[in-house]
Design a protein that fits this description.
Blueprint: E1 4-13, E2 18-25, E3 39-44, E4 48-53, E5 64-69, H1 73-79, E6 86-93, E7 106-112, H2 116-128, E8 136-142, H3 151-158, E9 163-169, E10 179-180, E11 197-202, H4 205-218, E12 226-229, E13 245-246, E14 249-250, H5 251-254, E15 257-259, H6 260-263
Parallel strand pairs: 7-8, 7-11, 8-9, 9-10, 11-12
Antiparallel strand pairs: 1-2, 1-6, 2-5, 3-4, 3-6, 12-15, 13-14
Bound molecules: flavin-adenine dinucleotide.
């Protein structure tokens, strides 16, 4: 429960409202390893504490990287930190993407907006252990070209063998030469083998519901091979306070990554 003091080593701008922060422990202590999909509680002293997914490389645990979109007071304070500032960090917490279940199979990653951040460590893992997986398919949608995260990396991932990376935006503008449309429109460019596909999804809940419907109804992917990361407001992050309760689950300790099989009866229920 006690935050460990960390120093901001670097801040890089990803989009107009989204920044990646690199943190290192102030006392030089070794960091606990994290698994792709896990999150930390970041404490901006005097402002508040909030859950943020770890978006860096799991094989470089000494450098904790977080990608934060400024949406309110705590996230605004976070993205306003400068190198040398300190922050409190608790964690890592929560469940991870089931990368073991994807071994020997095609891994399909579907992300919307800031949802690419918790999936990036999974992509790093697959690219590092390329022989363990068959195809890597990344489908990514953002509101506009200016909102696409990790643009250089998207280009370099697409150059990897047996890897397909497709992006789309809701509104293109005059200079955009890429695809326009919601992320589900990308499925028409992808050939899926349902019996050997594991899907990892993160984005706005409405987007995740449409992606799941496409995968399950139209593509025949089994509910137990579909995984999603959920978000709810959180306080303690260790299952005591109940803030993040979602039906019978606490998102902080039973999630944030769930199989769709676990959530089927809850997803889309009004005000849950
Ligand atoms: C497990 C987990 C991982 C997360 N990872 C990231 C991440 O990698 N990067 C990132 O930028 N954000 C992430 N978030 C969301 C982030 O924690 C919230 O955006 C943040 O708490 C908002 O705090 P605020 O004070 O800036 O805004 P507030 O004033 O609290 O909220 C601003 C707006 O955002 C909405 N909001 C607040 N919290 C959430 C939430 N958890 N889910 C959906 N909407 C919310 C509010 O309803 C309001 O409309 C994650 C959340 C969870 C639960």
């Amino acid at each position: 429960m006690c935050p460990q003091a960390h120093r901001v080593e670097g801040v890089s701008r990803e989009t107009q409202d989204t920044f990646s922060l690199t943190l290192e422990p102030c006392d030089g202590a070794e960091q606990p390893r994290f698994a792709p999909g896990q999150f930390s509680m970041l404490y901006v002293f005097g402002v508040g504490e909030l859950p943020v997914s770890i978006s860096g490389d799991p094989e470089q645990p000494g450098r904790l990287v977080y990608t934060v979109r400024s949406v309110g007071p705590a996230t605004h304070a976070l993205v306003s930190r400068r190198p040398g500032d300190s922050l409190g960090v608790r964690g890592p917490f929560g469940t991870a993407w089931p990368l073991e279940a994807g071994r020997g199979k095609d891994l399909l990653i579907v992300a919307g907006g800031i949802g690419l951040a918790p999936l990036r460590p999974a992509i790093y893992h697959v690219l590092r252990h390329r022989d363990d997986y068959v195809r890597l398919i990344v489908l990514y949608g953002a509101r506009s070209p200016r909102d696409l995260l990790y643009r250089k990396e998207l280009v370099s991932w697409a150059r990897s063998p047996d890897t397909q990376v497709l992006t789309t935006v809701d509104y293109g503008g005059v200079s955009w030469r890429g695809r326009v449309g919601v992320v589900t429109t990308l499925f028409r460019h992808v050939r899926l083998h349902p019996d050997r596909t594991v899907a990892l999804i993160c984005g706005p809940e409405i987007m995740m519901r449409y992606v799941i419907a496409e995968l399950e109804r139209n593509r025949g992917v089994c509910a137990s091979d579909i995984f999603l990361s959920m978000e709810r407001n959180m306080k303690c992050a260790v299952g005591f306070c109940g803030h993040c309760q979602y039906g019978p689950h606490f998102i902080c300790k039973d999630g944030p990554v769930f199989s769709y099989h676990q959530l089927r009866s809850l997803l889309g229920k009004h005000e849950l």
